[in-house]
Amino acid sequence: MQRPTIKTIAQETGLSIATISKALKNSPQVRPETRAIVVAAAERVGYELNMHGVQLRTGKTYQVAAIMTAPGPKQQEWEGVEYAQLLSGISWALEESPYRVSLYAVRNFEESLATIRQIVSLKKADGIIVSGTRADDPRVRIMQDADFPFVTYGTTIHNDPHAYVDADNEQMIRRSVARLVERGHRRIALINPMADLSYAITRLDAYRGALDIAGLPFDPALVVHDRLTPAFGRESVLTMSRLPDPPTAYICANEASALGAFSGFHERGLVHGRDAVINATDDLNVSQYFAPPITTYFLPINEPSELLGSYILRRMEGEPPEALQALIMPKLIERSDDRVVPKR
Amino acid sequence: MQRPTIKTIAQETGLSIATISKALKNSPQVRPETRAIVVAAAERVGYELNMHGVQLRTGKTYQVAAIMTAPGPKQQEWEGVEYAQLLSGISWALEESPYRVSLYAVRNFEESLATIRQIVSLKKADGIIVSGTRADDPRVRIMQDADFPFVTYGTTIHNDPHAYVDADNEQMIRRSVARLVERGHRRIALINPMADLSYAITRLDAYRGALDIAGLPFDPALVVHDRLTPAFGRESVLTMSRLPDPPTAYICANEASALGAFSGFHERGLVHGRDAVINATDDLNVSQYFAPPITTYFLPINEPSELLGSYILRRMEGEPPEALQALIMPKLIERSDDRVVPKR
DNA sequence: TATCAAAATAAAAACGTTTAACTTCTTTGT
DNA sequence: ACAAAGAAGTTAAACGTTTTTATTTTGATA
């Protein structure tokens, strides 16, 4: 027995396939009574819309492309693990819609650029979600030029306005620094993501601004940029703790680097809360299990990810991008006093 | 200007669309010279196959459904993070093929069952990759009954043979236990995944077998089953360390639970290597950053994930499932001596 | 050179849907 | 009472491909 089509329903009801099609999509051209008959018949025969027909006819793909930048296979590091939660959040937001998440794993920025170019020009999806935005992001421009719906996870700085979701990095860093200064810290390290990422710049600027306000000097030796792996956090601590005037606080951009920082503490014999402290930005709620638990700004990743999903839906419906911008302020979770007794 | 189709090429070359179609798929029915002409023309006009037409005509979807079981949004726990790497591995394995990974996030087993039922009956994908297998898995049976290509990440115990990829849990646990026994441990705890998962049973059986061989008694109080979150690892340590005769070694099923176990150590004032030790199964290579680093069986997750990708491709090509089964033995990484001085 | 089989190409139908254009029927306004 | 307008439905074409069937071309043979 074949899968029923609108033709099946047409025969079943004696109506034409055009009417069936219209009835099923609630066109005002068909009478409510007729629609009821059609719907009943569809129900009876177990009809389900065949997307392939729709896609061919309308050119819509009903796919949302999620561009996932993950390091290559050789690169065995704890990086980008929050992507799992990000994807599931997006997927759930699309659940009630006919759209599916189609995954495009890429190794680096260039690949993501090429992939996006292809998706846009060959219309392999109806919308794109992309993360790891740069200050001036060519991918954003490509999609804007083609008038292609997209949402970024992360802001840009020099691009025209577009739909985005991001944590409020600016506020987060300003308050982090201010709080540490209040607690007597004068040498605060910033473990920052890759320098070309937009939020690295935002964080750095906020950091410098906060230092200014506190009347503290900016020391480039206390700022590092790289991929946010544990290895990076570890190396940073190993290096900076050897400075003549080492930091008493480390602000880590995520939990992976914070974990690595702990590893560096262990290696150097540093004790958290005595020699220095670690703060972090948390989106997996894992810092509470560190020993000791650390103070973090916590933004449960499902929030931005579900927002990404609903934004791309609304963007594909034609809503203007200006209405689809969210900066979310993470919640401060103070798990540690974070005071450090000044040496001597 | 419209996107070129085979019709464009037909006009361009003066051939019929049937010939174009055949030429482009290397049918022996078309002369090499003709094919050359067609290919050249296709190149010239920048032709790309339109999948929608193909899909409608052939019924193939060129989608591989990846069923991702992730806890609901409220459930803010570090769980299932390795899924990100899993998905990217699969996605890379499919890169050269026309197939794409389509993501289906589900909250629990029942949802995954329903989702798979739907994918199979409505043919929403050409193949399925599913994880979290149970000893007797109804999803496997559904797919087998429908003769639907699939690969599981994880074995089953009571199902008919099918394609799978898994770590060799049996060997891993046997050797883990034997190694700990060699180092003087007589009370070894097993932090195991949910009891209905196939690998929980495999691990438990191996654990009992290894204890038997070592002449040690089996104590049910030393075995716990639950979702592998840090919270679970932590709770397990908090509880077990209060036993009259507490364990001196904890074998954790993944890194999340191992991290939680450390948190439990910290809470109880236990020192790793003095009071007890933690071993784990590692697929993200993160245990090296614990303080102190712990001994693990390491299986870089990209290995099984790329295997999953290539297996599903071969399965969709019609290879028999018996040829597509892999049990991978993780590599022992001894980061700690793991001897514990007996109390008193 | 005529014949025939084989090889190469063309024609046409089909996959399931949407939609523009058309027909029929009913209602409304003068 | 009748034309015009509106409502509800139908017809037919179209989206881009594959594949079955039909037709033409080619080359070998008698």
TrEMBL record, chains A, B:
Cited SMART domains: HTH_LACI (SM00354)
Protein name, entry field: LacI family DNA-binding transcriptional regulator
Coiled-coil residues: none
InterPro entries on file: HTH_LacI, Lambda_DNA-bd_dom_sf, Peripla_BP/Lac1_sug-bd_dom, Peripla_BP_I
Every HTH lacI-type domain range: 4-58
A GO MF label: transcription cis-regulatory region binding
Pfam families: LacI, Peripla_BP_1
Keyword annotations from UniProtKB, A to Z: DNA-binding, Transcription, Transcription regulation
